[in-house]
Write a structure and sequence with these properties.
The complex is a heterodimer of chains A (331) and B (768).
Chain A: E1 8-10, H1 15-24, E2 29-31, H2 37-42, E3 50-53, H3 58-61, E4 64-69, E5 72-78, H4 83-88, H5 90-95, H6 97-104, H7 109-114, H8 117-121, H9 134-140, H10 168-174, E6 178-183, E7 186-191, E8 211-218, E9 225-231, E10 242-250, E11 256-264, E12 271-272, H11 286-299, H12 310-330
Parallel strand pairs in A: 1-3, 2-3
Antiparallel strand pairs in A: 4-5, 5-8, 6-7, 6-8, 9-10, 10-11, 11-12
Helix pairs in contact in A: 11-12
Chain B: H1 6-9, H2 21-26, E1 41-47, E2 53-59, H3 61-65, E3 69-74, E4 98-99, E5 105-111, H4 114-121, E6 125-130, H5 137-142, E7 157-165, H6 168-173, E8 177-185, E9 197-202, E10 208-212, H7 217-228, E11 235-238, H8 254-266, E12 270-273, H9 276-282, E13 289-297, E14 303-313, H10 321-330, E15 341-348, H11 364-380, H12 385-391, E16 398-399, E17 405-406, H13 411-421, H14 424-427, E18 435-445, E19 460-466, E20 472-476, H15 485-497, E21 504-508, H16 525-552, E22 557-559, E23 562-565, E24 568-571, H17 572-583, E25 587-593, E26 613-624, E27 631-641, H18 648-667, E28 697-703, H19 725-737, H20 748-756
Helix pairs in contact in B: 7-8, 11-19, 15-16, 16-17, 18-19
Chain lengths: 331, 768
């Protein structure tokens, strides 16, 4: 079978110890559930001799809390919550049903029990040309993201377009979440909308010595109508070929008062669909759903980084958006 | 007198549990990779990164210097060519001068552990001179000047077969309805759970033992001895418990030769376990085929002509390709009577992993094309799809247009069962938009009369030994690859000898200890090995009865450990003791399956000629989302004529597994290659096989036609039931939304394109 490279495993007992280790071991990688990093290590995608296992931080970082913080009421999700836990947590089910739905559709039952929220939010980007063995990549001639100089998705491309493939990100983006990050220079809170970057090699603002410890969703989100959809070839296991999340607030008169739509699994940065402000004040109806579908299609350019025909993905996007928006409105 | 239940007796027809089932479920089963020996080395294979290249030089010196590396191996150390078919020896364990696909084996390193061996591979320097690569059958045909494999006599053709039975053109000219279309079948692979694994050990006397996850220990034995230059009597091949094969382990593979040679070189046991990626390069999966099919019906809806021109993409080596080129045409001539028939099939060498036999070898692709074409032609005459199949039924005890002898034939019963179970009459053409039913039928062989290498010896042998304790030992060369032959051997012993099937030891697939069986391919094992086992057991039963009659009288019944006669009963063990005393020697007997002469009197007429044919009919139900092209097969009713269900649970399991595999190929399976010939996503993440959630409800329905030639009337059940799944689904999608899918797999984007190309009024198929 494929073997792991030679690695030293570190087991910190606290966030502080973990951050100290990260600072002292350049190129160290973090191991939470391991569902993504282990295959990537076997594929030789990372140059590292040190793995920092976070199991010892479980008591610190595995929680779902509802509290009133500085910024008002919110739901706080510890980074080591497992995907399985979030898919079943009563608070998540009640207040963030789209997140629970997204979690239910990640991978399969065994992987959901291992994979964590922090791991999913920091999931490395994926591309059909990178998530392969060293031999396969060598036969290809390697690529921008690792060991090579050419992009096989965009001819003459200079920036890696490997796709954000996490399913929790679009939901948390639509719900206006932020993440708490701890590093040697202290702690910072970053809106999720500012967390991701347009760079498939490293698609977050997280510094190598920082740890994402929490995601927080402002509680008004609980009053948002929300829905998630995942397009994939198989009904389990597969990463998204397209995923999308919508959240909207609707007045008693049936008019939209707030609106966010995120479409992901396209390129490195999971991003909100822009320029929707003019739709605020419109009735939450089929017409709105169709208009959102048109705008999403205009702004989204699927690529060959994912093994499902990009032209097809683009073609059916308006249908997927329309149905998901209508499902949110009906929720 | 209370009699034990059929289930407890575990004799023929009982739902007796699989003998290796518990070990597979609880992890105690010992697979090849579970074997470990003191001082065992782990080896890894270096593979070509070029689809086509000359090897100029191989330098392993840096790899040899890496601490932990014990030995290296290159092709020049065992250059002899091999292959499963004696006429197409065209492979080397490690290429000496010519690599033919990305993944072709070039060198091998044995080290103290896998990681060291893997690191050493990167230190091997190979100088290649890249050659132009031919990546499709069309390209291979267009460029005979570029030679993929020197074994091809003409251009890149592995084998071409042209056969015509009756005046085809005449029949087409006078037909009432004709379909003439091109159908395309994507290549797919087996994806067994267990990757290929082999372990070799040489004992102090120089005897070599190779344990391998193979389904053809006998051919591996022959080829190992030949390539390594060892006397066959010094080579032993053992097949441990196997984690799936489906035809993907029915060739000799590079790893078997490499572990053997490295064990000889180092004097230490050596293991190679393929990675999942390597299993994809070993491949031998379903051939891509382009098929130009004409089906002609006369005014009465009878099939007056079938014409099929088939271009087969074979990959870099022949494997069973010679047979594939025949099977693609020869196995289509039932369950319907063809007025006339012609096929021209051509298998090409290309610079891709070699194709070979995947469950339903050679015939799944033409069956898909034909069953869809038949539907299309019948629609033109306004004949119901089930009716046209019934009307063309070929019958029992008949000869097909190409000279094959059909004995029992339960196809009409199969059609009737799926028609009733699916509610066809009330529901076909009436399910409303986006939902539909489709039907298809098929025929398959129960082994072939022709052995892979010509010889006069039996194709399958069994030795049965009785112990005075009452324990029965069955020594059988057959490979249990999950189809359950080891379980059936216990049941046959119970049926014939009256022993308790739980007190039978099966020693199988060990070339030192067991008689030869040719291997698990062409659905031959239960049929041929079963007959051999029955013959051996019958001989012993006669001795047991004769000996026991002295004690309990004549008119003896043997049942579940008791020997009963008019004067009382004794235990099975006592009967064994009486018989051993009477014999004056240990009790044993052998049985064999002797090849019958069958088939048409023309070149190739014996290929595809089987002692008995199985028949299948499916009805599939689908739902199509017309806005996205996303569709789902919700249910498949599959009725299979297996002659006699020796163990109905195993037959149902084979039907279910076959239906799953067929539906999978319709839904999503495809070996996709990039421009350089690099296989996209050689992993079980990227190569899609359906999960349980993507699998339809399956109704496995057994039909028993009691074949006069099979053991207890049995015929095959492991491959036939796959065939109709794909065309039944295609025909159901047509019923649901009026489109004809002629290219596999039925990706949603293909469905959507066809939906968008519909003309008004084409939305629904008109109910006949």
């Amino acid at each position: 079978m494929l073997t792991l490279p030679r690695l030293q495993l570190h087991r910190p007992g606290s966030v502080r110890e973990a951050v100290e280790l990260l600072a002292s071991k350049p190129n160290a990688r973090v191991l939470a559930g391991g569902t993504d990093i282990v295959p990537n290590l076997k594929h030789g995608i990372y140059e590292t001799e040190h793995l920092i296992a976070l199991r010892g931080l479980s008591s610190e970082l595995r929680y779902v809390r509802r509290d009133g913080g500085r910024d008002g009421d919110s739901i706080r999700l510890g980074a080591l919550c497992t995907i399985d836990q979030l898919s079943k947590d009563p608070d998540v089910l009640q207040s963030l049903p789209a997140l629970a739905d997204a979690c239910r559709q990640i991978a399969g039952p065994q992987l959901r029990k291992m994979g964590t929220l922090g791991g999913n939010l920091c999931l490395d980007t994926r591309c059909v040309y990178i998530n392969q063995s060293y031999f396969w990549r060598s036969a290809l001639g390697f690529c921008l993201k690792k060991d090579g100089t050419a992009c096989h998705v965009v001819a003459q491309g200079l920036r890696c377009v490997a796709a954000a493939s996490n399913d929790t990100a679009p939901v948390l983006l639509a719900l206006g979440a932020s993440v708490r990050i701890v590093g040697p220079r202290g702690e910072r809170v970053v809106p999720l909308a500012d967390f991701y970057l347009h760079d498939g090699i490293h698609n977050t603002v997280l510094e190598p010595d920082e740890l994402l410890v929490e995601a927080a969703v402002p509680l008004p989100a609980a009053r948002l109508k929300q829905a998630f959809f995942k397009l994939r070839t198989r009904a389990a296991i597969d990463y998204s070929a397209i995923n999308l999340a919508v959240a909207l607030a609707v007045s008693p008169a049936g008019l939209v008062t707030a609106l966010r739509l995120c479409v992901s699994a396209l390129a490195a940065r999971p991003a909100l669909i822009n320029r929707l402000q003019d739709l605020v004040g419109q009735p939450a109806d089929l017409h709105l759903a169709e208009e959102l579908g048109r705008r999403a299609q205009k702004q989204c350019k699927p690529l060959t980084n994912i093994g499902v025909d990009p032209a097809y993905r683009r073609e059916i996007l308006p249908v997927l958006v329309r149905r998901t928006v209508l499902r949110a409105i009906a929720s | 007198m209370s009699r034990s239940s059929h289930h407890e007796r575990g004799d023929i027809g009982a739902r007796f549990p699989k003998v290796d089932g518990a070990g597979k479920a609880d992890g105690s089963g010992v697979y090849t990779d579970d074997l470990a020996f003191p001082r065992m080395l782990h080896a890894k294979l270096l593979r070509s990164p070029h689809a086509h290249a000359r090897i100029l030089n191989i330098d392993v010196s840096a790899a040899e210097r890496l601490p932990g590396v014990i030995a290296t191996l290159v092709g020049a150390e065992m250059p002899a060519k091999y292959g499963v078919i004696p006429w197409t020896h065209d492979e080397q364990a490690l290429a000496t001068d010519h690599v033919r696909f990305i993944g072709d084996e070039v060198a091998c390193v044995a080290a103290l552990d896998e990681r060291t061996a893997e690191e050493a591979l990167r230190l091997i320097r190979v100088d290649y001179e890249p050659l132009p690569a031919l990546l499709s059958a069309e390209e291979a045909l267009a460029h005979p000047e570029i030679k993929v494999n020197e074994k091809a006599k003409v251009g890149n053709i592995t084998k071409e077969v042209k056969l015509e039975f009756g005046p085809v053109d005449e029949a087409i000219a006078t037909a009432a309805a004709i379909t003439r279309e091109r159908y395309q079948y994507a290549g797919s692979t087996h994806a067994p759970i267990e990757p290929h694994c082999a372990v070799a050990r040489v004992d102090g006397d120089g005897n070599l033992t190779v344990w391998s996850s193979t389904q053809i220990p006998h051919y591996v034995h022959r080829e190992l001895a030949r390539v390594l230059g060892l006397p066959p009597a010094r080579v032993r091949v053992i097949q441990p418990l196997l984690g799936g094969a489906f035809g993907g382990k029915s060739d000799p593979f590079s790893l078997e030769f490499c572990v053997a040679k490295l064990a000889l070189k180092t004097g230490r046991p050596v293991k190679i376990l393929f990675t999942r990626e390597e299993v994809f390069y070993a491949h031998r999966g379903r051939h891509p085929m382009a098929m130009d099919v004409t089906v002609a019906l006369d005014a009465g809806g009878r099939i007056s002509a079938v014409d099929n021109k088939i271009l087969i993409d074979g990959g870099a080596y022949a494997s069973f390709g010679l047979v594939t080129a025949y099977y693609a045409g020869q196995l289509l001539t039932g369950p319907y009577r063809f007025g006339t028939y012609r096929f021209d099939s051509k298998r090409m060498y290309t610079n891709k992993p070699p194709c070979g036999p995947k469950r339903g070898h050679g015939s799944v692709q033409p069956r898909f094309a034909f069953e869809v074409a038949l539907d299309e032609a019948a629609e033109k005459l306004g004949i119901d799809p089930i009716e046209v199949r019934r009307r063309n039924f070929i019958g029992e005890d008949v000869e097909t247009v190409n000279g094959q002898r059909i004995t029992s034939n339960g196809f009409l019963k199969c059609l009737e069962l799926v028609e009733q179970a699916s509610g066809w009459k009330e529901r076909h053409g009436k399910l409303g938009p986006g939902r539909g039913l489709g039907v298809a039928g098929s025929m398959y062989i129960s082994g072939t009369a022709y052995p892979v290498y010509p010889n006069e010896m039996p194709q399958s042998g069994v030795l049965v030994k009785l112990d005075r304790s009452g324990r029965v030992a069955v020594f059988s060369g057959a490979s249990d690859i999950g189809q359950g032959v080891n379980t059936l051997l216990c049941q046959i012993a119970a049926e014939e000898l009256g022993c308790d099937p739980r007190e039978v030891t099966v020693v199988a697939a060990d070339t030192d200890l067991t008689p030869v069986d040719m291997g698990a391919y062409s659905s031959r094992v239960t049929f041929m090995n079963g007959l051999a086992a029955r013959e051996a057991c019958e001989k012993l039963a006669r001795k047991l009865k004769a000996a026991a009659s002295v004690r309990v009288g004549d008119e003896i019944e043997l049942e579940l450990g008791t020997v009963r006669g008019p004067r009382g009963s004794i235990s099975f063990a006592e009967a064994c003791q009486l018989a051993e005393a009477a014999e004056g020697a240990p009790l044993s007997a052998t049985g064999g399956y002797r090849t019958q002469k069958l088939g048409g009197n023309y070149r190739g007429g014996t290929i595809g000629a089987s002692p008995a044919y199985s028949f299948t009919a499916h009805v599939a139900e689908v739902e199509v989302d017309e806005e996205t092209g996303i569709w789902k097969v919700t249910r498949i009713w599959a009725a299979h004529d297996c002659g006699k269900a020796l163990n109905p649970t195993l037959v149902e399991g084979q039907i279910e597994g076959s239906v799953y595999m067929g539906a999978a190929e319709a839904q999503m399976e495809e070996m996709v290659y990039g421009k350089q010939g690099l296989l996209f996503g050689p992993s079980l993440l990227d190569y899609k096989i359906p999960t349980s959630l993507d699998t339809p409800l399956i109704d496995a329905l057994i039909v028993e036609s009691h074949d006069p030639n099979g053991p207890y009337g049995a015929k095959e059940a492991g491959e036939g039931p796959l065939h109709p799944a794909i065309p039944a689904i295609a025909n159901a999608i047509h019923d649901a939304c009026g489109i004809r899918l002629r290219e596999l797999p039925f990706y949603p984007q293909r469905v959507l394109q066809l939906l968008q190309a519909r003309v008004p009024g084409q939305e629904r198929r008109t109910a006949c």
